[in-house]
Amino acid sequence: MNTFNLEKLVRNNIKNLKSYSSARTEYSGEASVFLDANENSYGSPLKQNFNRYPDPLQWELKQGLSKIKGIPAQNIFIGNGSDEVIDLAFRIFCEPGMENVIICPPTYGMYKVGAQINNVILREVTLTSEFQLDVEGVLNAVDKNTRLLFICSPNNPTGNNMNRKDIELLLNNFPGLVVIDEAYINYSAQKSFLQELTEYENLIVMQTMSKAWGLAALRLGLAFASGKIIELLNKVKPPYNINLASQQLGMEALTGIEKVNANIINTIEQRKFLCQQLASFNFIRKIYPSDANFILLKTTDADKIYRNLSDLKIIVRNRSKEPLCENCLRITVGTPKENQQLIEALKKYPND
Ligand SMILES: *Cc1c(COP(=O)(O)O)cnc(C)c1O
Q1: 223 with 37: CB under 8 angstroms?
Q2: pLDDT (tens digit, 9 = 90+) per residue, 217-244?
Q3: What is the pLDDT of residue 2?
Q4: What is the mean pLDDT of residues 103-130?
Q5: Which residue of 112, 155, 210, 215 sits with most ligand 1 atoms within 8 Å of its CB, as the best mutation to test the pocket?
Q6: For residue 3, what pLDDT is reported?
Q7: Would you say the CB of residue 56 lies under 6 angstroms from ligand 1?
Q8: Phi/psi of residue 244, each to 5°?
Q9: How much of the chain, in percent, has pLDDT values that exceed 70?
């Protein structure tokens, strides 16, 4: 078991940072005249008032999320998409050009891009041929400058869950922070790690409202972690990172959880339907089992199938350049109509 020390992982400039403070966060009473922030007191051309700066900590939305997720609001951070959470993690914990992070390809592309933008050294430990974590490989890749480990479960683009025992082993033995990206958790049979937050102080669970909640355009990425980690994220984020329209629409969405659950059930049903249909094409060599809202396929010629589909105005994701994904396409589960269109389009591809 680790002796985990968060302080030691934080960059010195962040430790010493005095974060931006507005007059309104400094004032604790009930003000009625706001002449502190150079807002436009006359309003805008819109019917709804967007002339005031939004709540920097999005408390109402967090309280709504807290009820649904069973996690205290103080342990929730909301980013402008998960992308912002990923970027903040690099900026808080990794000294550019010096410290390193571990990712396990094939996986979500933003971890690598985020590392490169921040000039953080990347150590890539490929998944096993079963698309599972190479636990020993990860631990062997650790040195004194290792700060973060990204685990995506269910993983994008492979669609499978990482074995829970492996994740637990890494949580217990990895010396830095473990970020578990659960963007697709609502489609999965696997249990979330949210309930494990009290046990592991080195854990950050990321989720998002972009997938099962269907709100990709609002850019609401979620992070759940210890109060200390959340404080660091709040300290470094831009003060008004979540705009008011997103906060309000996010809260409205939380009142419609039945619709979200119905859509999850439909997606899983269509995922099964697609798998059955796709199995009849002999240019599809393998359909990988999926716990997400997409399916990874191994084909005889990914580039050619991709081109054929795009000629028919159907766009899928060509992942054939990713490690272990030679000739693989990733297909998002669509509506029944879209899935039918996909199947019809594939029927036009020579099945030989
Ligand atoms: C789609 C996706 C996200 C969501 O990103 P947002 O910035 O919140 O839209 C996060 N992680 C993975 C692995 C994803 O595939």
Answers
A1: no
A2: 999 999 999 999 999 999 999 999 999 9
A3: 55
A4: 98
A5: 210
A6: 74
A7: no
A8: -65, -40
A9: 99
Cα(154) to centroid(ligand 1), Å: 11
**What is the pTM (predicted TM-score) of this model?**
0.97
DSSP one-letter code for 243 = -
Q: Cβ distance 88 to 237 under 8 Å?
A: yes
Burial 280-292 (b: 16+ CB within 10 A, else e): ebebbeebbebbb
CB of 160 closer than 6 angstroms to any ligand 1 atom: no
Q: 87: Cβ–Cβ under 8 A, 6 or more apart, which residues?
A: 114, 117, 118
Query: Strand, helix or coil at 3?
Result: coil
Phi then psi for 224, rounded to 5 degrees?
-125, 130
Q: 182: Cβ below 6 Å to ligand 1?
A: no
- As a whole number of angstroms, the distance between CA 45 and CA 60 comes to 26
Cα dihedral value 55, 59, 62, 64, nearest 10: -110
The full DSSP string for 90-143 is: HHHH--TTT-EEEE-SSS-THHHHHHHHTT-EEEE-PPPTTS---HHHHHHH--
Quick check: CB of 106 below 6 Å from ligand 1?
Answer: no
Q: Kindly report the protein residue whose alpha carbon is nearest to atom 12 of ligand 1.
A: 183
Residue 82 Cβ contacting ligand 1 at under 6 Å: yes
pLDDT in tens, 243-254: 999 999 999 999
At residue 48's C-alpha, the angle toward residues 42 and 50, to 5°, is 60
